């Protein structure tokens, strides 16, 4: 139910949702520099994804305050 509510925040633009957990949505937002202040959390669990996106997160102004663990 919670994931559906987040999806309904903006079904066509994942960059406007408060949380991202689907790989293709995270990939789209990071690669196209479409992050907004609406995003509060991204679930990037796979280690390859963390390493791949760490550089992108560091360079992207929209995600300048994101902590990668």
TrEMBL record:
The organism's place on the tree of life at top rank: Eukaryota
Protein name as annotated: Uncharacterized protein
Organism, as annotated: Castanea mollissima (Chinese chestnut)
């Amino acid at each position: 139910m919670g994931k559906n509510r987040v999806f309904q925040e903006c079904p066509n633009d994942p960059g406007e949702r408060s949380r991202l957990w689907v790989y293709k949505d995270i990939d789209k937002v990071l690669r196209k520099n479409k992050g907004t202040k609406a995003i509060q959390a991204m679930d990037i669990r796979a280690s390859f994804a963390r390493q791949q996106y760490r550089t992108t997160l560091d360079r992207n102004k929209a995600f300048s305050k994101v902590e990668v663990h």
